[in-house]
């Protein structure tokens, strides 16, 4: 089956900085895929190589089967990129910007689609406003719209919700989810891990230019954050000796105990009962993508599959 994005053995150095090392990655059509990693991991560099904006030192990248260097035009038509930085032309209105962008792709008579994107991104009130006059969040919506004027099958969003308020974040995600349901492949980088967790079915984690984990979101959480923890407030405020080995932290009167399985909760309760210690508060912490991410970044000397 044709891949939406196929990356083979891509390396990129900036002088002595090894930004990407031997990246192999295949993203399938229709996927909602997250590219995660700490600052400087290489996410934007990889996106720029996919978009044909940065040249890799070695390796190859295809978008919908088109090589991003030798078949640049077809690859570019297959891809829409929403960049991280707010770049805009201050001299045009929102609608003009989108029609001009359509022209870059050689698309004439694009007004009906441009108007539809404007409406779906809640920009109708601002369609004739000058770009200069828009708030940061509105400008970001226009960036999303710009990436969509040529109806690309693959859309990459580089931190689309950075600095965006909660309401706009919701509008953006509803729209992007709809695009994915309509069949578009979506690749996303974000530092908001709960967004990746709710939206994306598969995740690649990058660190120092290497993919250190690649799996479905649920598997990754299961594999790397298998540890639950129990937070309890006790009276008297003393953790019995038999439970000391489970203690992970103590803060503000709350003990955090490591739980590897649910049977351990029964053990904890029985120890507390026998010691005549009462529970004043208790929370079970479920693992999430953030736990997986933190564990992985901490212990990423070795590559995980
Ligand atoms: N044009 C450039 N010249 C020199 N070094 C660069 C250049 N672009 C990126 N780098 C370096 O390459 C590495 C990867 O950077 P990149 O911007 O791809 O990371 P990132 O994962 O997107 O980070 P962030 O989450 O902060 O956006 C970093 O060490 C960065 O300093």
From TrEMBL:
One of its GO terms (molecular function) is ATP hydrolysis activity. Residues 5-233 form the ABC transporter domain. It holds the Pfam family ABC_tran. The keyword Lyase does not apply. The keyword Transmembrane helix does not apply. It comes from the Bacteria. Keywords: ATP-binding, Cell membrane, Membrane, Nodulation, Nucleotide-binding, Transport. Belongs to the ABC transporter superfamily. This is ABC transporter ATP-binding protein.
